[in-house]
Automatic annotation (TrEMBL):
Keyword terms of this UniProt record: Disulfide bond, Glycoprotein
Residue span, Copper type II ascorbate-dependent monooxygenase N-terminal domain: 68-188
Origin species: Mytilus galloprovincialis (Mediterranean mussel)
Name recorded for this polypeptide: Uncharacterized protein
PANTHER family in the cross-refs: DOPAMINE BETA HYDROXYLASE RELATED, MOXD1 HOMOLOG 1
Highest rank taxon of the organism: Eukaryota
InterPro entries (UniProt xref): Cu2_ascorb_mOase-like_C, Cu2_ascorb_mOase_N, Cu2_ascorb_mOase_N_sf, Cu2_monoox_C, DBH-like, PHM/PNGase_F_dom_sf
Pfam families: Cu2_monoox_C (PF03712), Cu2_monooxygen (PF01082)
All copies of domain Copper type II ascorbate-dependent monooxygenase C-terminal, residue ranges: 209-350
An example molecular function term from Gene Ontology annotations: copper ion binding
Amino acid sequence: MEFSSNETRTMTYFDQFKIDIKSWCGGVCTLSDGSICDADKGWVDCQVEDGLKNCNVLKEPETLNRTIRFPETAVPAEETTYSCMIFNLPSYQDYHLMAYEPYIDNEMVMHHILIYGCDPNEDPVPDEQLNTVTKCGMSAASNCNQMIGLWAVGFPGYCIDGPMGFRIGQGGFKQAALEFHWNNPQLESNWKDSSGVTLFYTPKLRANDAGIMMTGQLNLEIPPGQQSYTVVGKCHSECSRKLIQDPINIFWATNHMHYLGHEMNIKVYRDGVYYTELTNDAIYNYDSPVEKKYSTAVQVLPGDEIVTTCKFKSLSRPKTTFYGDATSDEMCFGFLAFYPAANMPFSRCTAWKDISVCNLWLQQEHNDCKWVDFMFKNVNETKRVRDEVMANCKLFGNCLSECKATLQILFAEHPCMKGDVYELIKDQSLDLNNTEMQAFIVAVDSCKAEMAVDVYLQNLQNDNVNGSNRLGGISLILVSLIMYMMIK
């Protein structure tokens, strides 16, 4: 039998011959028919790193392990690359995944590794598509989205010591995906990587299945030259009430930002009152992430508000830093491991500005704005709004009076033209290259600046009528500057 790589060899050997690797390191490899396999174990790293030396489950005789690695793959000469590979998990019976350890082949490019379970209720990925590395953006496949493991720079590995584990096998995940984030800011063209993870799992099932919740903020615009700039992402109570069906217990947590991040915490509020703190990195270091393990799990209830606060120091940056995948971009995420997993099937509770993402994706609606329909479907209401704007506004040039009149009505009455949800529609239209919506947005924006000045002048006039006259000549100078910038 020939193998194209260590990873392929591992998977092909296990899956085709149904090897049960019981205590593979230092033990005996046996085939399903009871015979002993004469296999070279040189491709298995039998040393447990210091990060897992106190992991009790590794000392249990029932514990099995499997090493999953990318075949040696060329790293693109691009700053940021997401690559994924889907593979089969042991499925001869039910197991709990209890620990995992990184195998980092090229530390020059490896930013993080995520492990996602693939929905066992969906059709499995065909065999010919398994164990193949593909570019994947930030998602391996639409049905592989339940996070069951993560590694970032500085983590030695992870071990669960408690009454919970991630269920794999006959009654759990039968396939999973490895997602690699390669970071190559030097645009090196001759780098390769065959990193991976070793999974430790046991047929000795714990009392609970575990899951991982993601919190944080998806919209970041960090000004340059700031000593400290604060960003908040809320998992609002209305969202947690929809997502958390019954109480969950958080037993592990970690924070994630990039190099501008210098402080981060996650807090829980109950009935509007501070309840507890889940993480608190007073001094955050991207290269040395801190894990918080709780001796007693923290219970979170439906309706609790989970607030993620990130602080960034941008003194070294000459320009605004945005949310993004590269380490030169920024992130603001918390990862919270919890049980039982069944109590929170959809385990992402992030925000885009102050909009709860759960409403955007579960209901595809925010404050009566059906934003997906508004962006993509030419239903009667959407078509009416677009037709009105395109008939009265110019894509480029001056703000027309008829355009301003049309927009004043729409901004006042239409839920998709107000506040953060309109900004989200703009953002998504650019990301998804929705050219029809992009033209609509350019037409709307032809008058937005002038209308903002109109509102400001009206407020100023109201102040003067009420006798405050608090800004006077300074306001006129400010308005003149705004008008100058608009026509420049």
